[in-house]
Amino acid sequence: MPFDPRQQPLTPVQARVLATLLEKARTVPDSYPLTLNALVTGCNQKTSRDPVMQVTESEAQEALEGLRRMALAVEISSQRATRWEHNFPRGVGVPDQSAVLLGLLMLRGPQTAGELRINAERWHRFADISSVEAFLTELQERSDEKGGPLVVLLPRAPGAREPRWAHLLCGPVDVEALQAAASPGGAPASGPLQARVEALEAEVAALQATVRRLCAELGVEPGTESGIGAPMSPPGQE
């Protein structure tokens, strides 16, 4: 039977460990599966994490053992080091696209469908917001035979333009506490905003690299008023 969070919800550390394995499998495949040390470093990142955590090696090891018993993580032993990989889509019984959305919700906290689409860029490129919403709706309407719903659509917070989604892998969500944290008088909800800034910064950096490459191929200097650039001076004639 697929994983049922109503019967055995994940602990916060288990959720962070599992989501980190999901993230690194897609963003740094050359380093995946992860050693325990690399996994702890990923769990404790200051960026793209909400909340920021300080997971110890012993806590991560204990979480991994629990995830292995639930068939959500797999240990791979070798002569050099023991490494870990996730078994999330198969263990939970969801397609890869749904696994991406659940991983992002575990890492970054509640998000709108638009934020999830932006944050998923390095994991999976969704065609549009509608496709994100379709997978979220499928997760929300998951039948009891498959383990029940895995996400919930939160009531729209005061002043917010769109409602946010939250995962249910750690059990029922405390809606009042989340709304209080997102309100002006509560703790600042910096996770989604920082994620949007990071995505935009990455896009700008990619565009700048493309411009520099094209200018080099055309033999022009980037950044001039002509829009593309001026011809590059031969060596020794600057």
UniProtKB/TrEMBL annotation:
| Domain of life of the organism encoding this protein | Bacteria
Q: Where is the signal peptide?
A: none
| Pfam families, per the entry | DUF480
> Could you tell me which InterPro entries the record lists for this protein?
DUF480, WH-like_DNA-bd_sf, WH_DNA-bd_sf
The family classification in the record reads: Belongs to the UPF0502 family.
Q: Which HAMAP family match?
A: UPF0502
The record, for PANTHER family, names: UPF0502 PROTEIN YCEH
The protein, known as? Uncharacterized protein
